[in-house]
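Holo prediction. Input below; ligand is 2'-O-acetyl adenosine-5-diphosphoribose.
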Amino acid sequence: MRDALDSALVERAAALLEAAGHVVVFTGAGMSAESGVPTFRDAMTGLWSRFSPEDLATPEAWERDRETVWRWYAGRAAAVREVAPNDGHRAVAELGDRLTSRGGALSVVTQNVDDLHERAGSEVAGHLHGSLFQPRCEVCDRPAGGELSVAPDLPHCELCDGPIRPGVVWFGEMLPAGAWRAAEQAFAAADVVLIVGTSGLVYPAASLPIEAAERGTPIIEVNPEPSTLTPTTDCFLPAAAGTALPALLRV
Ligand code: OAD
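Structure of the complex:
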């Protein structure tokens, strides 16, 4: 983690946001890290350090052992229920309020499957990798209702008795079409993109800020460490979300 945030960098990023009509905030697991939700690739506490993705987050794992896969996601949903949005989530919601009050707009596009942006007061334009709180029937695709997400045992569909599956995107699956369309529209309309807490390793999600940068959209990034997206950014703030995002609102 770097030392105190360079005020000139913060002022530059704040000026880009101040001049913008439409801001896209593109977030990854680092956005929720300070709330206590492990990131995917953090060596110490990352989810994958305890599980192999093939054992849990693939259609094959689901076919092989639905109970174990369901219990892992139900445990993650229950863990999210136990934590709270952090100062970074609240700063994103405040930025959205400020933009709206001056006739602008803020679109949150997230790779995260938690609901911390929503609980901080933001509307999420697209959950690109689904949500822990949108389980659905594997057979008839009927939404099962968020409260089922934390049920420890494998629930079944009231309509067709099919198994209820986690509402998250597994490796090899297509992204939700509605979320992807909303994300593409938001990025196309963006005057500025603010990237927070993603390694930028997973596609097609990571292609959205890269293509925006290629169109000349200014990119701001908040991350304690450089990511694969950092070379495309106009302003890199080497800090945690809970530090940098509130600082951007205080300029
Ligand atoms: P990663 O775990 O790959 O990256 C987390 C990023 O957050 C890293 O770049 C960290 O440096 C940064 N970070 C850590 N703490 C932070 C903090 N307090 N503030 C800001 N940034 C911080 O997570 P993602 O990039 O979100 O996909 O991973 C993308 C996708 O890979 C996930 O959505 C998931 C996974 O496979 C699916 O589940 C389909």
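The domain at 7-36+85-132+174-250 is CATH 3.40.50.1220 (Rossmann fold). That is the main takeaway for now.
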